[in-house]
Design a protein that fits this description.
With 241 residues, this protein is an all-alpha fold. Helix content is 73%, strand content 0%. It has a domain of 152 residues. It contains eight helices and no strands. It is rod-shaped and about 85 Å long. It starts with 9 loop residues before the first helix and ends with a helix.
């Protein structure tokens, strides 16, 4: 007994093809952006991680000093790390509090966390809907040999969505850790003379930020993998139209 599905009526077939053409045009172009943007963000995040690692290395190996600066703008020899200066411009000055560059770094990490969580949740919801809609393709024989391509696009994006959410969680936790560190020179020196917890916290935050950067880069790779699949799929639909 045949289990073949009945053919779609002509009006439904035309509507399905138009919908596929729309998706394969605009979502394909949209994904071209997201096949690059997460890697660009990954580079920025990796830079932040290396900055924190450089500071942690400096603080872990250099005894805190008790300077008597003439100018409040003198650099703190014991706290500044050349790599942190070069990567993110972080400069500890004797008469200042938390460096402005540290505040910007923390905001960058926190903003990236919020964006990744929101974007991941939206994309996951969109792929759930796309998965359900793609079931209609089972009734359309001319695309039967490309069902794998269409579903691979959805799964790639769905996997990327989950990875965005994980990256967002890591970045949020890293930002929470950084908020527990008082970056004012006097506070850093006091900590280094006592529990010396700040270098350990910076190492932990850097590890989380670095892993989030890896996830961002992997997300871009998954989305980039869709390019040929969209192209093949769209070419077939255009031929049918």
């Amino acid at each position: 007994m045949s289990t073949a599905r009945p053919a779609l009526p002509d009006p439904d077939r035309a509507a399905l093809l138009e919908s596929i053409l729309n998706l394969s045009e605009y979502h394909r172009e949209h994904e071209k952006f997201y096949s690059v943007s997460p890697r660009e963000q990954a580079v920025e995040l990796q830079r932040h991680a290396r900055t924190l690692q450089a500071l942690a290395d400096q603080w872990r190996t250099t005894p805190p000093s008790t300077p008597s600066p003439i100018s409040p703008f003198e650099g703190a020899d014991d706290l500044n790390a050349p790599a942190a200066l070069q990567l993110d411009g972080v400069l500890f000055m004797e008469g200042e509090g938390e460096p402005a560059e540290v505040a910007r770094l923390k905001k960058s990490v926190r903003d990236a966390a919020v964006d990744a969580l929101q974007g991941g949740k939206w994309l996951s919801s969109a792929m759930r809907a796309s998965w359900d809609v793609a079931a209609s393709l089972l009734d359309f024989e001319p695309l039967s040999d490309l069902l794998g391509e269409r579903h691979r696009i959805i799964v790639n994006n769905w996997q990327a969505a989950h990875m965005f959410e994980l990256a967002g969680m890591l970045l949020g936790r890293a930002a929470d850790i950084l908020d527990t560190v008082d970056f004012a020179p006097a506070a850093v020196r006091a900590d280094l003379s006592a529990a010396a917890a700040s270098p350990r916290r910076l190492f932990s935050a850097a590890e989380m930020i670095g892993r989030a950067a890896d996830l961002f880069s992997d997300c871009a790779g998954l989305i980039r993998d869709n390019e040929r699949r969209w192209r093949v799929f769209r070419a077939r639909v255009e031929g049918l139209v």
